[in-house]
Amino acid sequence: MKHNVFVSAAASVVLLTAAPSATAATVSSADSARTVPASAAARADVSAEQAVAAALKDYPGVVESLDRDGNIWHVDVITKDGKGHAELEVDAATGKVSRKNVDKDENPGEHKGLLAAKITAAQAAKAAVAAHPGTTWTVEWDSDDDSGKAPYWHVEVRGSDGKTWNASVDPTTGKVTAQTDSDSNSDSDDNS
């Protein structure tokens, strides 16, 4: 008899303490469902690949750079003739593209290497993630002639451990040619 009383009392305590939180969770999710449109609730965070696709749909060309800063993807696109350049922002939650700056009198010679590259920014990102699993955070075309290096894609990948991994990707073959780990992020873009 005492055993049944203790079991009943324990069950009552569990129900009394769990019920408010279960009710609160139900109310909270019901409130969320009312305030957040169903399409937004089902939508996942915009990936680097999706940000590239959205930017190129808005401003066709070749991606020169892609960088995540908090909830915004910054994407620079060069037109295929090399004469135009757009600085775009892609909202990482909605995928909405905003044009921040468009220039139509670029020197095509400055973008010759980028326009001739066989490997795109999106392909360079995929190659880097294949070499080091994680999430693409930055892809930049680097043709700095002062360094003496051939042009390459610089890609930053964030691993699940929070560390940033840097890679150089060959723009002709897609081969990951250099890689480094860093414990801290050198950019101020860790607000996501």
Describe what this molecule looks like in 3D.
This protein has 192 residues and is of the alpha+beta class. It contains five helices and eight strands. An eight-stranded antiparallel beta sheet has the order 4-3-2-1-5-6-7-8, with helices on one face. The longest helix has 34 residues, at 2-35. It starts with a helix and ends in a 10-residue tail after the last strand.
First CA to last CA: what distance? 57 Å
Helix content: 25-40%
Strand order of the largest sheet: 4-3-2-1-5-6-7-8
Q: What is the alpha-carbon Rg in Å?
A: 24 Å
**Shape estimate:** globular
Please write the string of helix (H) and strand (E) elements: HHHEEEEHHEEEE
**Uncertain runs:** 1-43, 184-192
> Which band does the percent of strand residues land in?
25-35%
The chain-level structural class is alpha+beta
Number of helices: 5
Number of strands: 8
Overall mean pLDDT: 79
Q: Tell me about the largest β-sheet.
A: 8 strands, antiparallel
Task: Write out key terms for the chains shown.
about 190 residues; globular; disordered C terminus; 5 helices; 8 strands; about 35% helix; alpha+beta; single chain; disordered N terminus
Précis, in short:
The protein has helices at 2-35, 38-42, 48-58, 112-116, 121-131; strands at residues 62-69, 72-78, 85-91, 97-103, 135-142, 152-158, 164-169, 176-182.
Describe the protein's topology.
Layout: H1 2-35, H2 38-42, H3 48-58, E1 62-69, E2 72-78, E3 85-91, E4 97-103, H4 112-116, H5 121-131, E5 135-142, E6 152-158, E7 164-169, E8 176-182
Antiparallel strand pairs: 1-2, 1-5, 2-3, 3-4, 5-6, 6-7, 7-8
